[in-house]
Amino acid sequence: MYVYLYIPLLILIVFSFNGGRMATIWEGFSLRWYAEVMQSDQFRAATVNSLVVASCAAFLATTLATLAALGFRGRPIRGQGMMVPFLSFPLVIPEIVTAVATLIFFISIGVPLGMVGLIAAHTVFCIPFAFITIKARMDVMDDTLEQAANDLYADPRRTFFSVTLPLLWPAILAGFILAFIVSLDDFVISLFLAGPSSTTLPIYMFGMMRLGVTPAVNAVSTILLVMSVLFVLIAAWINRMQRK
After folding, report:
1. Which residues of the chain have pLDDT under 50?
2. CB 11: neighbour CB atoms within 10 A?
3. Minimal CA–CA distance to 83: which of 95, 98, 71, 99?
4. CA distance linking residue 163 with residue 152, whole number of Å
5. Are 50 and 200 a contacting pair, CB within 8 Å?
6. Which domains does the chain carry?
C-alpha cells in the first residue's frame, strides 16, 4: 500500500529535476524548470491567491468550528445529537455536488466569481475538518479544571482565557493547519468559483497540463506537495506535543 501511494510521488519529484523537455525521459539533472516556474508571473499570482484564500478560509473556519465546539460543551440543547452529523455532512457529500450547488447559489444571490466567493465557499467546506479536531480535544478535557477556576471566583471570561483556551489551543492550531491544507489543495470548488483574476495553484496546474505534461508541471506539483507535507508535519508535531 505504501509503495503504491508514494512511489508515484517520488517519481514525480525526481523527474521535476529533469533537464530535458520530456516529462518521463531522464536527460540529466537540472533546476531549469524550477527557475522557469519561479520567474512566471502567473505562478506567483496563483501562489499568492492560494495562500490568501487558504489563510482566510482556515481562520474563519477554525473560529466558527471553535465556537461550535464550545456550544456543544455547554448545557445540552434539544436536537444536539443530530447537529454533529449535520456539521459532518460536507465530508461525505461529493465535492462536485457542493461546487455546483454553491455556484448556483452565488449566481442566484448575485455574488460575483472571485476571491470573496472562493473564501466563503472554502470556509464552509473546511469547517468540518477543524470542528472534528477541536471537538475531539474538547471531549477529553478535564471539566474539574474549569470547576476549580469557578470555585476560586474566576468569572466565565477569566476561566475561558486562563483555563479553557490554553488547554484547547493545540487543537485549535491543528484544526487551522488541517483547514489550511484542505483549502490550499482544493481543485473542484476552486475551478467552479474562481474568476479570471483569482486562479489558484491547483487551477494553474490544470491549465498547464492541458498543454501536455512537462517537467514544469512536475516542478509545480513538487512545490505544492512540499507545502502540504510541511503543514502536515507541523500538525503532527502539535498533536504529539498535545498528547504529552
Report:
1. none
2. 12
3. 71
4. 12
5. yes
6. 41-243 (1.10.3720.10)
Q: CA–CA separation, 177 vs 235, rounded Å?
A: 6
CA distance 103 to 61: 19
pLDDT digits (tens, 9 = 90+) for 31-53: 888 888 888 888 888 889 999 99
What pLDDT does residue 30 have?
84
Q: What is the pLDDT of residue 122?
A: 93
**CB < 8 Å & 24+ apart, contacts of 232-237:** 232/177, 232/181, 234/177, 235/174, 235/177, 235/178, 235/181
Query: Residues 128, 88: contact at Cβ < 8 Å?
Result: yes
What are the backbone dihedrals phi and psi of residue 121, each rounded to the nearest 5 degrees, phi first?
A: -65, -45
Q: What global pTM score does this model have?
A: 0.83
Rounded to 5 degrees, φ, ψ at 212 are 115, 145
Dump the DSSP string for 144-174: HHHHHHHHTT--HHHHIIIIIHHHHHHHHHH
pLDDT given at position 180:
92
